[in-house]
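re: ur question from the group chat, yeah i did fold both. here u go
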Amino acid sequence: MAKRLFDLIVAALALVLLSPVLLAVAAVVKLDSPGPIFFRQQRVGRFGVSFRIHKFRTMRHQPHETEALPITVGDDARITRSGRWLRRTRIDELPQLIDVLAGSMSLVGPRPEVPRYVALYPPALRARALAVRPGITDPASLEFVDEADLLARAADPEREYVEVILPRKVLRAAEYAERATLASDLGVLLRTLRVLAGAR
């Protein structure tokens, strides 16, 4: 209950205080390349319930591209000019504050995956990893802050993600679900802010 109240208060305040920034970014995204301002994608949330996540669009809009790899590898050619900066600073994630208010997400919690990868979760960890609301940031996000670069160095990026990175993320998600407290969430938020402060 305290976690949800904290999420609601912080998300609402952040949306109000950051509204000039959000409007400016929305304008930049719209002017930079054709397509919608927001990127929406189906993700798997708490207890396996699907929802549509919100991000600022950072890639060229390709509405008919159904086989696109759902991971970003290095300097992906699909990324727009503004998208490179938005991704580096993580500003593209700010619209997820809307998802926090809606109750689909939390400020801190395991990052929500696409169904394609959730289907690969080890059965022993699946229920534990999906026992809490997914979040905008979490310990695994900080551990793999350079994930796109790691995948770019792999001979087979998706195989590297599925066999190396994803199992680690699922384990971290299960650990978070079992041990998280409001105090530990505050610690993750502070660590995230420090990482963002160092982004150029």
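okk and heres the other one u asked abt
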Amino acid sequence: MPRRGLAPMVIAVLSAACTQPRPVDRSDVETFSEVAMGVDVTITVAGTDAPARLTAARAAMGEVRACDGALSDWQASSERSRMPRTAGVTTVASERLFDASARAIEIAGSTQGRFDPTIAPIVQVWRAARARGVLPDEAAIDEALARVGWQHVRLDVPSRGITFDRDGMTLDFGGIGKGFAAQRASDIMVGSGHACHLVAVAGDLVAGPVAPPGAPGWKVLKEDGLGEPLRLVLLGEAISTSGDLEQFIEIDGVRHSHIIDPRTGRALSNRTAACVRGPDGATCDALATALCVAGVCDAPGLMRRFPGYRASVTMIGTAGVQSWSTAPGPAGPPCHADAITVPDAETAPPRR
């Protein structure tokens, strides 16, 4: 696995005669990088034992790859891709696939379907349309919608069984998989004794509970293409952003996002971006997608169902630029869950 030093100093080598432990300094911070899940994955870790850092990072990277092998819809050999799509046939899933499915279905219910992991049939319709540079056929969207609906997935916890109620259903973890993998990689780092770390699976970040040397936490710059970049310090939390900054198709002057409303099968046409910060990477990832679908008006009601999470949403539509956020928002100082307030959208003035 390629690796490179983060700090400007050479990693210190201890003398064999040195028996007293020394404090971690900047020269003991190292970044390990790899491509997995189709994106850049980096794990930055602090510790005085270089071989132990490498071992921990390799284990965490292996977990990200294992999540890809379980959840990918691009790999024909993935566990998700091999699931039967016949109604009533039960898949006995691995622990990773079942846990990701269970969390995704739970969030789908809490967001009233604004996030829905069964959206895969519609995603395929839009992918094919974007490849041709045209909008998808309305009849194709309607046909795909008949195979979508989180309420039609049955989960059996004791057996880790997953069963679909409708023929042709399948799962899509594009809106939760990277955050899920980042969180599991972070958990492995903590379990190995390396609590001072930052895991980044593309734009989904999870920070360990111990700050890097000489700093209050990990300094992070998050940008969604609509609002001002967020400069924040992350410690013991996750953060995710979602929007159409990079993935969209423009036809007849209308920009169609890669984010699709699972309830209608239509792509978002208003420029929208969301950022979510909180204790779990998978939840942050899925909530960022759900908030883009919810928009400014529905965001307060959605976020009241997720205590302990902070979020912001920005939209550009016919009414101009509108923003909403919890108080404090994602860039605000750390706070306890009961200190986070969720104002109504009407009280948040539009930004123009």
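fwiw on the second one: Residues 75 and 271 are 30 Å apart (CA to CA). Residues 1-20 have pLDDT under 50 and may be disordered. idk if thats what u expected
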